[in-house]
Write a structure and sequence with these properties.
Elements lengths: L1 H25 L11 H21 L2 H12 L4 H38 L8 H14 L6 H25 L1
Helix pairs in contact: 1-3, 1-4, 2-4, 4-5, 4-6
Length: 168
Amino acid sequence: TEVTEKLEEVVMIWTKQIRQVLVESEQIRREADDVGPSAELEHWKSRMSSFNSLLDEIKSSRVKKIISILQAARSKTLKQWKELDRRITIAANEAKDNVRYLYTLDKCFGPLTNASPVMMEHIPSLMNTVCMIYCTSPYYNTSEHMTSLFLKITNQMINTCKTYLCEG
Protein backbone atom coordinates (compact mmCIF):
# COMPACT_ATOMS: atom_id res chain seq x y z
CA THR A 1 0.00 0.00 0.00
CA GLU A 2 2.91 2.37 0.61
CA VAL A 3 4.13 1.86 -2.96
CA THR A 4 0.59 2.34 -4.25
CA GLU A 5 0.27 5.61 -2.33
CA LYS A 6 3.55 6.91 -3.77
CA LEU A 7 2.49 5.96 -7.29
CA GLU A 8 -0.89 7.59 -6.77
CA GLU A 9 0.90 10.79 -5.73
CA VAL A 10 2.94 10.68 -8.93
CA VAL A 11 -0.19 10.15 -11.05
CA MET A 12 -1.94 13.02 -9.25
CA ILE A 13 1.00 15.33 -10.08
CA TRP A 14 0.83 14.23 -13.73
CA THR A 15 -2.93 14.74 -13.69
CA LYS A 16 -2.53 18.29 -12.41
CA GLN A 17 0.12 19.08 -15.05
CA ILE A 18 -1.95 17.60 -17.88
CA ARG A 19 -5.04 19.50 -16.75
CA GLN A 20 -3.00 22.70 -16.89
CA VAL A 21 -1.90 21.94 -20.47
CA LEU A 22 -5.51 21.25 -21.46
CA VAL A 23 -6.78 24.44 -19.80
CA GLU A 24 -4.09 26.53 -21.53
CA SER A 25 -4.87 24.95 -24.89
CA GLU A 26 -8.55 25.84 -24.56
CA GLN A 27 -7.97 29.50 -23.74
CA ILE A 28 -8.76 32.16 -26.30
CA ARG A 29 -5.73 33.06 -28.39
CA ARG A 30 -4.42 36.60 -28.42
CA GLU A 31 -3.17 37.53 -31.86
CA ALA A 32 -2.17 40.70 -33.64
CA ASP A 33 -4.96 42.39 -35.58
CA ASP A 34 -3.22 41.92 -38.91
CA VAL A 35 -2.14 38.27 -38.63
CA GLY A 36 -2.68 36.25 -41.81
CA PRO A 37 -4.02 32.74 -42.44
CA SER A 38 -0.61 31.06 -42.25
CA ALA A 39 -0.66 31.86 -38.51
CA GLU A 40 -3.66 29.55 -38.19
CA LEU A 41 -1.68 26.66 -39.67
CA GLU A 42 1.31 27.46 -37.42
CA HIS A 43 -0.94 27.50 -34.35
CA TRP A 44 -2.32 24.04 -35.10
CA LYS A 45 1.12 22.65 -35.99
CA SER A 46 2.42 23.85 -32.63
CA ARG A 47 -0.58 22.41 -30.82
CA MET A 48 -0.18 19.10 -32.67
CA SER A 49 3.46 18.91 -31.66
CA SER A 50 2.65 19.62 -28.01
CA PHE A 51 -0.13 17.06 -27.76
CA ASN A 52 1.80 14.41 -29.69
CA SER A 53 4.71 14.83 -27.27
CA LEU A 54 2.31 14.51 -24.36
CA LEU A 55 0.76 11.39 -25.90
CA ASP A 56 4.22 9.87 -26.45
CA GLU A 57 5.00 10.44 -22.78
CA ILE A 58 1.72 8.93 -21.63
CA LYS A 59 2.27 5.88 -23.83
CA SER A 60 5.85 5.38 -22.57
CA SER A 61 6.72 2.11 -20.85
CA ARG A 62 7.41 3.87 -17.54
CA VAL A 63 3.95 5.41 -17.40
CA LYS A 64 2.30 2.18 -18.58
CA LYS A 65 4.03 0.24 -15.79
CA ILE A 66 2.82 2.67 -13.14
CA ILE A 67 -0.73 2.61 -14.51
CA SER A 68 -0.77 -1.20 -14.63
CA ILE A 69 0.42 -1.37 -11.00
CA LEU A 70 -2.35 1.02 -9.99
CA GLN A 71 -4.87 -1.03 -11.98
CA ALA A 72 -3.82 -4.15 -10.09
CA ALA A 73 -4.22 -2.21 -6.83
CA ARG A 74 -7.64 -0.95 -8.00
CA SER A 75 -6.64 2.66 -7.44
CA LYS A 76 -9.35 5.30 -7.60
CA THR A 77 -6.97 7.77 -9.28
CA LEU A 78 -7.28 5.85 -12.54
CA LYS A 79 -10.75 7.17 -13.30
CA GLN A 80 -9.38 10.71 -13.58
CA TRP A 81 -6.33 9.46 -15.46
CA LYS A 82 -8.42 7.65 -18.07
CA GLU A 83 -10.56 10.74 -18.62
CA LEU A 84 -7.47 12.91 -19.15
CA ASP A 85 -5.96 10.32 -21.47
CA ARG A 86 -9.17 10.43 -23.51
CA ARG A 87 -9.18 14.25 -23.62
CA ILE A 88 -5.52 14.40 -24.68
CA THR A 89 -6.14 11.86 -27.43
CA ILE A 90 -9.08 13.92 -28.70
CA ALA A 91 -7.02 17.15 -28.60
CA ALA A 92 -4.13 15.47 -30.45
CA ASN A 93 -6.49 14.07 -33.09
CA GLU A 94 -8.14 17.47 -33.51
CA ALA A 95 -4.81 19.22 -33.99
CA LYS A 96 -3.57 16.58 -36.45
CA ASP A 97 -6.79 16.74 -38.44
CA ASN A 98 -6.82 20.54 -38.50
CA VAL A 99 -3.20 20.66 -39.70
CA ARG A 100 -4.05 18.24 -42.49
CA TYR A 101 -7.00 20.35 -43.65
CA LEU A 102 -5.19 23.68 -43.29
CA TYR A 103 -2.29 22.37 -45.39
CA THR A 104 -4.77 22.10 -48.27
CA LEU A 105 -5.35 25.85 -47.86
CA ASP A 106 -1.64 26.62 -47.67
CA LYS A 107 -1.30 26.55 -51.45
CA CYS A 108 -3.91 29.34 -51.64
CA PHE A 109 -2.07 31.58 -49.16
CA GLY A 110 0.93 32.19 -51.45
CA PRO A 111 -1.06 33.79 -54.28
CA LEU A 112 -3.04 35.74 -51.71
CA THR A 113 0.16 37.15 -50.24
CA ASN A 114 1.97 37.92 -53.49
CA ALA A 115 -0.94 39.07 -55.63
CA SER A 116 -1.92 42.55 -56.61
CA PRO A 117 -5.19 43.88 -55.19
CA VAL A 118 -6.87 42.35 -58.24
CA MET A 119 -6.78 38.94 -56.56
CA MET A 120 -10.19 37.86 -57.75
CA GLU A 121 -8.78 34.96 -59.77
CA HIS A 122 -7.55 33.33 -56.52
CA ILE A 123 -10.75 33.77 -54.52
CA PRO A 124 -12.83 30.93 -56.06
CA SER A 125 -10.23 28.22 -55.34
CA LEU A 126 -9.69 29.63 -51.86
CA MET A 127 -13.43 29.62 -51.10
CA ASN A 128 -13.86 26.13 -52.56
CA THR A 129 -11.09 24.85 -50.27
CA VAL A 130 -12.60 26.58 -47.23
CA CYS A 131 -15.99 25.09 -48.14
CA MET A 132 -14.42 21.62 -48.44
CA ILE A 133 -12.84 22.00 -45.00
CA TYR A 134 -16.13 23.17 -43.50
CA CYS A 135 -18.07 20.30 -45.06
CA THR A 136 -15.64 17.47 -44.32
CA SER A 137 -13.57 18.30 -41.23
CA PRO A 138 -14.88 16.68 -38.07
CA TYR A 139 -13.16 19.30 -35.87
CA TYR A 140 -12.56 22.49 -37.85
CA ASN A 141 -16.14 23.03 -39.05
CA THR A 142 -17.19 25.18 -36.10
CA SER A 143 -18.33 28.78 -36.27
CA GLU A 144 -15.41 29.78 -34.04
CA HIS A 145 -12.75 28.17 -36.27
CA MET A 146 -14.30 29.41 -39.52
CA THR A 147 -14.65 32.96 -38.19
CA SER A 148 -11.01 32.95 -37.12
CA LEU A 149 -9.91 31.64 -40.51
CA PHE A 150 -11.98 34.17 -42.50
CA LEU A 151 -10.67 36.98 -40.31
CA LYS A 152 -7.09 35.93 -41.08
CA ILE A 153 -7.82 35.60 -44.80
CA THR A 154 -9.35 39.09 -44.79
CA ASN A 155 -6.33 40.44 -42.88
CA GLN A 156 -4.05 38.97 -45.54
CA MET A 157 -6.05 40.59 -48.32
CA ILE A 158 -5.86 43.95 -46.56
CA ASN A 159 -2.12 43.57 -45.98
CA THR A 160 -1.60 42.71 -49.65
CA CYS A 161 -3.53 45.83 -50.70
CA LYS A 162 -1.57 48.02 -48.25
CA THR A 163 1.72 46.67 -49.58
CA TYR A 164 0.60 47.28 -53.16
CA LEU A 165 -0.42 50.87 -52.37
CA CYS A 166 2.84 51.63 -50.57
CA GLU A 167 4.89 50.27 -53.47
CA GLY A 168 2.83 52.15 -56.08
